[in-house]
Amino acid sequence: MLAERIRPAVYAEKVPFELAIWRVPGEPIPVAEALAAAEYTPFKVGERWGTPWSTAWFRVSGTVPEQWAGRRVEAVFDLGFVGDWPGGQAEALVYDAAGHPLKGVAPRNQYVPIAHPAAGGERVELLLEAAANPDIRISAAIKSGR
What we know:
This protein is an alpha+beta fold and 146 residues long. It has helices spanning 2-10, 31-36, 136-144; strands at residues 18-23, 41-42, 55-63, 73-76, 91-96, 101-105, 111-115, 123-131. Strands 2-1-3-8-5-6 form a six-stranded antiparallel sheet. Strands 4-7 form a two-stranded antiparallel ribbon. Strand 5 (91-96) and strand 6 (101-105) form a beta hairpin. The chain is globular and about 40 Å long. The relative contact order is 0.22. The model has no long low-confidence stretch (mean pLDDT 87).
């Protein structure tokens, strides 16, 4: 019931974002530097975005459809989560276009509020600082030589 009816009903309509990525050559990088960086390249959903323990910044942009006026709108991000547990894997901190932190994204907390209610036609500009933390159960097995 959960998989077949409830989860599909939570987000009845979806529109994709435009995505660009900057794979950070070193870290940490302050948000002001990420906002000013020119090294962003187009990114497609499903591409690999980071090696274990690396950081990538995503520019996320889109427009709320006009027909969504009056409705609650959220951005939903899946960073490639490998399971339904709260941590020990990829995570992100989401900023607005001015560099103010908005909310964290993790396996059990993937949404970011956009509007409630939406006017329709709003431009959405977000910046995600994503950490490619590997599944620590797998990391522990590799480290111990198993």
